[in-house]
Amino acid sequence: MDIFRLIQDIKKHLKLSFDEVDRWFEKDEKILNNLPVNGGWTIQQILEHIYLTNFYLLILIEKASKKAMRNTLELDLNSEIKNYSFDHDKFEEVGKYGAFDWIRPKHMEPKGSLDLSEIRNLLIQQYHQCSGYLDLMKNGEGLLYKTTMTVNELGKINVYEYIYFLSLHAQRHLTQMKNNELEMIKNKKNDFQKI
């Protein structure tokens, strides 16, 4: 396994995900606050949810990063790199909106206590935090510690995979936000045609 390639691929995915999420902050307020017909979250609520989920995932990623770096003193990094293979397929459903049921904890649900500029700034900080962990573990150290991920029965995943999961979670909600926007545009068009 080319661990350096994996790290670069995760960095690219992370940048793409966060850049796409950031573009939503430029949308019109009506689009951001439109309540979907199915009673789901508004785009602003989804953006807050992405931030909240990242917040809690990053607590685990920070702890795992520290443990992984400590494990370089005891474990054979070269052996771990040699024996590692990334199961890309195992993760792909995480990034697909509606691919499986996902029961999120209450503390990851949006409360409306943050304004858009705060959410945007916090997401930018979270992106830099993730990038910093990838830079810190640039030689494969992220393989040296695993944490259990119960979502979609992923099981024990290493620090790189956890960061990739975080990025995929944002991708999942990008689809949801696009769906919300399209629904609003379609409804406006139908209302206009009725006139």
UniProtKB/TrEMBL annotation:
Annotated DinB-like domain residues: 32-177
InterPro entries recorded: DinB-like, DinB/YfiT-like
Bilayer-crossing regions: none
Pfam families: DinB_2
Gene3D superfamilies associated with the record: dinb family like domain
UniProt name for this protein: DinB family protein
Organism encoding this protein: Chryseobacterium elymi
